[in-house]
Amino acid sequence: MIQAYVLFALVVVHGLLYASWVAAYNHARNLAHLPSVFPVLNPTYLYHEVWPGNTSSLGIWRASLIFTGFTTSLIMLAVFITTFPVIRRKHFNVFYFTHLLMIIAVVVICLHASTMFYCTAPGLAMWVLDWGMRIYELSGKMDSTLVAVGKGWFCLNVPLPRNRLKGCACHSPLAHFHIHHTESSIREIHPFTTITHLASQKLSSSDSDKNIMIQFLFRKSKASSYSTSMTEQTPERRLKRQWTNKLADLVDEVTVDLSPPSERMEESDLQRQRLSTQYQTTLRLEGPYFTPANPASYDTVICLVAGTGVTGAIAIAAAFRRQSTIEALEPETTMFGHEKIRGAPLERNFSISSFLAPSGAASIWKRCVVVWSVREADYIDLPFWHGKQGSSVFDPIDDLTLQ
After folding, report:
1. Which of 100-109, 342-351, 368-377 has the lowest mean pLDDT?
2. Where are the alpha helices (DSSP H) in 83-204?
3. How far apart are CA 386 and CA 139, in angstroms?
4. How would you class 155 by CB atoms within 10 Å of its CB: exposed for 0-12, middle for 13-18, buried for 19 or more?
5. Consecutive H or E run containing 148
6. Residues 154, 279: contact at Cβ < 8 Å?
7. Can you give the C-alpha Rg of the chain in angstroms?
8. Threshold 0.85, pTM exceeds
9. Which residue, of 48, 308, 309, 314, has the greatest Cβ tally within 10 A?
């Protein structure tokens, strides 16, 4: 990202220097009443080598370089603007598809300066290799299970082939995949952080197991969740176009068809009903990609997360539990509190769980604290914090609880 920003800054400087040169050159030429020596459209050549001094096809192509450079600058400007958090987070599709214009920008910039092809050839070769590997991973379909957790939260369970971890230095608990789901969108590929600690799965699972069950936790926009009133037609239709909402609606439709909840049904009963409803679908996975973070290098790790950011915290908490002896590890302290923030429009829920490893643990990592901030109206007691023995849907973190 920093490299891209520096490149865009250099392009801007390049354009400003060119504009300054044009103004200074024309001013000096007019004062001295001199004929044109360097063409304004392409000052790297002499006037008689470029259109209008040279009307040949080569001269016209040399004069067109100013337009190809300007086109590339506009594409890079559009990409730069869409990287702002207000656009990237709220309008991810705009951010995603605008970045695909860089494929056109690379072609145009090579027309702008022919030597650019030789400069970009190493990067283009790596890009082609990377996409070849991505397409190879995305070529295989995987059967997956989509489960509604409740209050607009969903869990996607996917059996990952064990050979995907070959050659991976999977020491970090944080790993993400790119998911392609044709029922939601044919063109889009979205990154998701898995709540499964893959490093522990690789070390603890038997080699005879061909697959590793991994899980993705995501949330649907509340305006289009199951409890949304049908009177909100316009915002609901707009939100249903979002990729995650289309995926979540697959379970919503099944749930509605099976047993619509009554007005007197309590939330716990509704959640149990939704958990009993699953939707079988197929998707394609690319990854995993691991982060360089290594929590085991620190004595205390504090995860400050909000909303769906809890997915990474669950993976880190699972890594903390795995590194300690499961039989000996028990939570020493568990805290949960409510606090109303002054000036905030909504009351917020702060769920704080502190887990201490036994004093005899050999690892440097002795303490893991998860602080999860979520709107109280949207809070849900996620089943991943509670042990559910014999559950085939979740991979529970038995010793991590929220009360």
Report:
1. 342-351
2. 85-88, 92-99, 102-112, 116-138, 198-204
3. 36
4. buried
5. strand 142-150
6. no
7. 28
8. no
9. 314
